[in-house]
Amino acid sequence: MPRQPLLTFTDRGICCPEGDFHIDPWRPVPRALITHGHSDHARPGHGAYLATEGSAPVIRYRLGDIRLGTIAYGERRRIGGVTVSFHPAGHVPGSAQIRVERAGEVWVVSGDYKVAGDGLSEPFEPVACHCFISECTFGLPVFRWKPQAELAADLNRWWAANAAEGRVSIVGAYALGKAQRLMASADPSIGPILTHGAVEATTAVLRAQGLALPATTHVTPGIDGKTHPGALVIAPPSALGTAWAHRIGPAAEAFASGWMALRGVRRRRGLAQGFVMSDHADWEGLNTAIRATGAERIFVTHGYTAIFRRWLEDQGYEAGIVATEYEGESLDAAEAEPGPLIEAGGEEEAGAVQGGDAPG
Ligand SMILES: [Zn+2]
Ligand SMILES: [Zn+2]
User: Which residues sit with Cβ closer than 5 angstroms to ligand 1, an ion?
Assistant: First the structure.
């Protein structure tokens, strides 16, 4: 009897028939292996969850009382007829690629990843495989990120200039990953760091699991640009331009996102400043990661899939597109505010920028 492929693609998510589990499924399944805590990957309603020790606290914070088992990076675990292991994806703290092996055949699901170090997440680890299932959120040559040290210098220069002019600096960044990366990049000698509630809550979860992050003050009534002159304020993108932001006082606002590489996005949002900073791989990062796997077959899941598939085929790969419900990097959507779903009363509204601001 011919064997099924190691992983199959279903309307519930990426499925491993012989292990009887799904990876980052978007509809409820009995057993889910989860790459990381962003809401397009870690969804409610599954019977049981398995995630890395580093991503479990955020997943538990977001999804409440779930059956969640943990696994260390590199630990091999037998599930049904296959062996699985989780490996650093460099996307956000605790994020993983998932390796699945059966009789010497290896497939790897990347989840979201980036190759360059961000000073915070466990560095991306190339995993040799026969078939690599990759995101390609930023799969165009126009997307090229600066090294982390240069991004930090840009941020601090902008912050210091605003502080010198008596303004606070508000940066929009999603609450899990990028917000903490900004904090870790900020030079506390310039001024205090303030946070929006969604950012503060997620940061508290990460601090509790041992991440060293600078001191922050949650913006509550009575905390503003007068009590904290020249502050850097880190908030979800959706908070920019709102009454919440105006109350803090005279401010300069900026987004930190890979989409800031596109002038049209910056212009439509009326932003003087944007930091081209992403937790997804840029063009070079995608190509480096794919080459490093040694895989001959590549499936791309979300992003510029058609263009990127074509590019891979031109490079001699056997390439395919998988339809998924992952959202890539969003300015407004789910990744922005990973508050507890339970309290929020349901799923967040999705409005991925790919469908709106960015060219497809
Ligand atoms: Zn993500
Ligand atoms: Zn994602």
Answer: 38, 112
